[in-house]
Model the fold of this input.
Amino acid sequence: MATTLDGIPNEVALAIHRRMVRIRAFEEYVSELFLQGKLQGFVHTYIGQEAIAAGVCSLLDDSDYITSTHRGHGHAIAKGIHLNQIMAELFGNVTGACRGRGGSMHVADFSLGMLGANGIVGGGFGIAAGAALSAKYRGTNQVSVCFFGDGAINKGTFHEALNFAAVHDLPAVFICENNQYAQFTAGGRTTAVNDLAVRAASYNIPGVTADGNHAGEVYRAAHEALNRARAGRGPTLLNLLTYRFGGHYVGDAEVYRDKQEVEKRRALDPIPRWEQALNDARILSADEATTIWAATRQAVADAEQFAQDSPFPQADTALDWVFTEAADR
Amino acid sequence: MATTLDGIPNEVALAIHRRMVRIRAFEEYVSELFLQGKLQGFVHTYIGQEAIAAGVCSLLDDSDYITSTHRGHGHAIAKGIHLNQIMAELFGNVTGACRGRGGSMHVADFSLGMLGANGIVGGGFGIAAGAALSAKYRGTNQVSVCFFGDGAINKGTFHEALNFAAVHDLPAVFICENNQYAQFTAGGRTTAVNDLAVRAASYNIPGVTADGNHAGEVYRAAHEALNRARAGRGPTLLNLLTYRFGGHYVGDAEVYRDKQEVEKRRALDPIPRWEQALNDARILSADEATTIWAATRQAVADAEQFAQDSPFPQADTALDWVFTEAADR
Amino acid sequence: MSTKRMSFGQATVDATRFAMRQDERIIVLGEDISWGGNFGQFRGLLEEFGPKRVIDMPISEAAIMSVSLGAAVTGLRPVASMSFVEFTFGAMDEIVNQVAKFRYMFGGQTSVPIVLRASDGTMRCSASHHSSSLEVRFAHMPGLKVVAPSNAADAKGLLRSAIADDDPVVYLENKQMTAKRAPVPEDDYNVPLGSATIARPGRDVTIITYSIPALRALEACAQLEAKGIDAGVIDLRSLVPLDMTTVLETVAQTRLAVVVHEAWRFGGLGAEIASQITEALFKELVAPVARVGAASAPIPFSPPLEAAVVPGVSDIVAAVERVIG
Amino acid sequence: MSTKRMSFGQATVDATRFAMRQDERIIVLGEDISWGGNFGQFRGLLEEFGPKRVIDMPISEAAIMSVSLGAAVTGLRPVASMSFVEFTFGAMDEIVNQVAKFRYMFGGQTSVPIVLRASDGTMRCSASHHSSSLEVRFAHMPGLKVVAPSNAADAKGLLRSAIADDDPVVYLENKQMTAKRAPVPEDDYNVPLGSATIARPGRDVTIITYSIPALRALEACAQLEAKGIDAGVIDLRSLVPLDMTTVLETVAQTRLAVVVHEAWRFGGLGAEIASQITEALFKELVAPVARVGAASAPIPFSPPLEAAVVPGVSDIVAAVERVIG
Ligand SMILES: Cc1ncc(C[n+]2csc(CCOP(=O)(O)OP(=O)(O)O)c2C)c(N)n1
Ligand SMILES: Cc1ncc(C[n+]2csc(CCOP(=O)(O)OP(=O)(O)O)c2C)c(N)n1
Ligand SMILES: [Mg+2]
Ligand SMILES: [Mg+2]
Done:
C-alpha cells in the first residue's frame, strides 16, 4: 500500500478523513435539529475531537471493542454504526441502534464491538478492561479501547481499572480525550497534574501525550499502543490534547469560557488540517473533498428522513428486554 | 531538648518506645483473649507494625486528626485513647470508646482527633482529606493523617481523595502501612507497581518510601511530611515498609505464606530494634525497658479487669444515637 | 410575610444564602457549582461567598461525600451537591456505610451535619442514567433523613431546616420541578422536617405522595372532581422522619388510600406506607391501599416507552377509581 | 439421588465445579478467592481450574463488577465474588447503573450473564460494616434477579441455576449459614429461580421468609406448636422473580400471614410482600399481614444491642401470636 503520509497507508488516511467528515456533518446537523426542538433530552456533540475517534478506529476491526462516553456519537460513527441507526436512536425510534431505549447517551452496537456510550462518567474503564480480559482469555487478537474525558480521569474507576489491566497485561488502550473541560470546569481547577500521561506511572504502563487534533499524530500514537496491546505487552494510557468547539451540550450558554479562547482553538480544527495534509500529499484533491462533504451531508439528511419515517416503539413493549425471558415481565 | 538519636529528641524517642510497647502488649493480650473465646467478632492485630503508629503519632497533637483502618488498635493507642476504653469497646461494654456500638473495627475518639477505625477498606482517604480541608478552612495548624494498607491503595477512593487533597494543597499525610499482604494475597499479585510511592506522581505530590520497621526512619519521614503539610505546602504519600507478624485476623490459618518468610521478617521486629538503638544511645537501659514492659503488661491486664467489671449496654438503648434527637426513634 | 414568585431552584439558593450568611461553618461543594449547577440551584453563591465556601469538585463522587464527612465531623457543615441522583451510586459506600453510620457506630460521639442535594426523578427523554427515583435507598438506611419537596416554598423551608439539622439529610429535588415557579415567602423561614401537609382536603379518598407526583395528584383530583369524586392529597414532604400521624388521621376519615411515587412500585416506599396504613387501620379500610409507581424497567429514552413506565396523572386517576370500586 | 452431608459453603463450591467443568466460559473473580474465600465458598477451585479461571482481584470492588460486565458482554460468564455484601456499596454504580441496565438500555442487544455472590446478614459481633441485609437494594432495580437460599441443598441448586441464567443474578449467602451442614444431593441439579418452597405446611398462619430467618421461622413453629398453633413456613428462596403464586395460594387458606426478614423493617422487602398479599387477598385476610424485620439502627457490635435490633425466634413467635390475636 502507498504510504505518503509518513507511515500511514493512503487508504487509511482517506478513511480517516471520511470518518471525520461523517462525524462533523452528523454533529452539525444534529445540533441544528436539537435547536429546532426536533430532538429531546441531552445532546453532547463531538465537534472538534473528530481526529481521535477517526484516527483510533481506523486501526480497529469490527471485532475489536470500544467503550464510549456521554459524548459518544463520534465513536459510534467511527466504529461503523450506520448513521440511520444512530439518528433513529436519537429520535427514540424503534429502528434505532438500541430500539429507542437508549437515546443519544446510550448508542451501542455490540455486533460491531461498540459496547456503548454511557451516561455515567468513568463508566467505561472497567468495562473496557473486562472486554480485554475476555479477549485474552479466549486467546483472540482483539483489543479493547476505552475512550474517556479529562474530567473522567479523576473518577476512582480510572484507578481501579488501570491497575487491574496492568496487573494482567491486558490488551487495552485507555484514551483520554483531553478537551480541557469537564462540563463547565477547566481541567486545571480540579486535576492535580497538568500532563495527564504521568498517571500511567502509577500502573507501570506507558503514558503518551500527543496532539489529538492531528489525525496523523493520533494514528501513530494509537498504532504503537495497539501493537503493544496485541503483542501481549499490556495497556497504554494516551493523553490526546483536543478541544470541544461547541458547548458541553447543545444549548450550553458557555459562560465559563471566553469566545477568544474558542476562536483560537478553532484555528486548530483537525479536519481542515487533515485535508491540507492529504492535499499536500496529493492523496485528496479539493474537488474530491467537496464531493465527500456533499455526499456525507446528503447521507446525514437521509438519516434524518429515515428517522422521521420510522415509528416509535409500541408502548406495550416497554417491559421487553429487562430480562432475557419474557416470562419474567 | 537532648537529641541523641540523630534529630529525635530523647523524650520523643522514649515516648515512641512506650507507645510501641503499649501496642504490642495490648495486641498480644487481646490475641490471647480472642483465642480463649473471651472476645467475639473479628480482631486484626497490629503486631509488627508498631513503629508506624508510634512514630507518626509522636509528632501529632491531640487536636490533629487521624483516620484508621480495620487494623486500628495501634492507631487508637498511639493517638492516646486509654487502654480501658479500647478494651471495653472490644468487649462491647457501655464503658467502651464507642459505648459498645463499634467493637474492634470501629474504635474512635473524636475528642482526641481519632476519627475512627473503619471496617471498609479505603474508607479513610476522603475522610482524612475532609478533615484537612476543614483545618485549612478554619485556619488552624492542624494536620490530618490517613493510615491505610498496601491493599487499600487499589481502591478508587485513594485516587479521588489524593487528587482532591493535592489540588487544594491540604494539610494531609497519606501513610501506607505496606505490610506486603492484603488479607491472604501478596501485594505483588494485585498491584501493578512495586514501589507504591511512585503513585504520588499522579497527584504532583512527594512520594517517599521508608523502613516502617524502624521508628527513627518513620519519625524522620513523617516529620518532613507533617512540616510540609503544616506549612501549607500540601499532602505527601509515605510508603512505609513493614510486615504483620500475625495472621490477617486472630485465628487465621496463614496457609498463604510460609513460616520461613515470617521468621525472616520477625528478625526485623521494630521494638527490639528501637530498644537497641535507645540503649546504644544511652537513653534507655535494659532495666528501664524491663520496668516499662512490666508496667505496661499490668496496665493491659487492668484494662481487661476494667472491661470485665463493666456492664453491657442496656438493650433498650439500642436505638440511641441513630439520630441526634431521641424524638426520631 | 411578603412573597415573591421564584423557581424551585431559586428558592433553594435563597435558603442556602440565608443559612450561609448566618453560619460561617456552612460550605457548599459539588461539580460545576460555581457556575450555578446544572439547574441553577447554586447560582450566585460563588459571587457572594467566594471559592473558599463554594468549592468546585473533581468528578469524584466518592470524594465529594467522604470529604464532606471528614469536614462535618471536624466542625464544618457541608452542603454536598451530587448533581443527578444517579451519580450517588458512585458514592453509595460513603453515604450508607459512612455518613449514615458514623454517629451510631461511634456511640454518639459525633454528629454528622451534612446535606446531600441530588436532582431526582425522570428527566424527559434522558434514559436510565439520568432518570430515577432512589428515595427508598436512602430511607432504608437508619441514620439518614430524607426530604422531597414538591414546590418552591417547601423547597426553601425544608432546605433551611435540612441545613440547620445536625443529622445527614438527603435533599431530593426533582429534575422537572427545578424550573417551576411559585410564590415563596421572601424572609427566612423553616419547614420542619417530618411534617406532612394536606395539599388538598378530600372526603372520598386520600392520595399520599411527595415530590413531583404531588403536582400530578392535584391534577388528578381536578379530573376526579369532574367525575364527582372528592379526592384529597397529602404531600409527605419528608420521608424520614415520616409523618404517619397526619396520614393515619386522614385515612381514618376517608377509609380509602392511594400511595403514589415515581420510583418503581416493586420494593418502593409506597409499600412501606401502604403497610403501615394497613397495619394501623385494617378494620377501617374499605379496600386495600393502592400503590402507583413505575413499572419494572429502567427508564427508557423513547417518549411512548417513558410514558408507559413512569406513572402519570391518568395512572393516579385510574388507581383512585379502582379503590373506589 | 444419593446425598452427602456438606456445609452450605461446600455446596456452593460443588455447584460451581459442576458448572465450570461443563462450560469454559465461566470464570470466577474476587478478592482472595484462590485461598478459598472468607467462608471457604471457593475452596479447591483454583486447584482444579487454575489462575486463568479463578482470578484474585485487587481491593477494587468497582473493578470487580465492571470487569465482570465487560467480560460478560464479550462472551464470558463471570461469577463475581463481592465477599461481604457491605462491600457491594463500593460497586453499586456498576451493579445498578451498568450491570442491571445494560441489556435494557441497549435495546436487548446483549445479555449480561453475571452471578454476583455476596455474604449477607448479621455476622455476630461484627458491627455495622460487616452486618447487613441489602436485598431490597437489588430487588428494587429492574434487571437484577435476586436469590437468597436458606440451606445447603437449595444453595447448590440455586447457584447452579444462577450460573446458567443469562441475566445478572445476585446470589446472597448468609454469613452465619455458610458453615451450616445438611444433606445435599451429590449429582448435578438445579433449583429453578423464582420458585418458593413450602418449608413446613401449617393450617393456622403462614410465615413467609427467606435466607437464615427461614431457619428461625421453623424454630418458631416448633415453639408455637407447643402452644397449639400450627404455623407454616414458605421459604421464598428467590426474591426476583418472586413466586407470589405459592404465597397467595397458601395465605388464601390460612388467611393470616407474617413476613420475616433480617433487613430493616422500614422500607424492607417485607412491605412489598405484605402489600401484594393485601392487594390480592384483602377480603380473605383476618388480620393485617405482620412484618418482622430489624429495628431502625445500624447493626451494633455489643451482643445485647445486636439482639435488640436483629429479629430472632422470639420476635417471630410474638408476631404470629399477635396476628392470631
Ligand atoms: C458519575 C458522573 N458524574 C457526573 C456526571 C455529569 N457529567 C456529565 S459529562 C461531565 C463532564 C465530563 O467531562 P469529561 O470527562 O472531560 O468529558 P467531556 O464532556 O469533556 O467530553 C459531567 C460532570 C456524570 N454524567 N456522571
Ligand atoms: C471495601 C472492602 N473490601 C474488602 C474488605 C475485606 N478486607 C478486610 S481487610 C482486607 C485486606 C486489607 O489489606 P491492607 O489494606 O493491606 O491492610 P492490612 O490488612 O494489610 O493491614 C480486606 C480485603 C473490606 N473490609 N472492605
Ligand atoms: Mg473534557
Ligand atoms: Mg496490607
Summary: The CA atoms of residues 188 and 194 of chain B lie 7 Å apart.
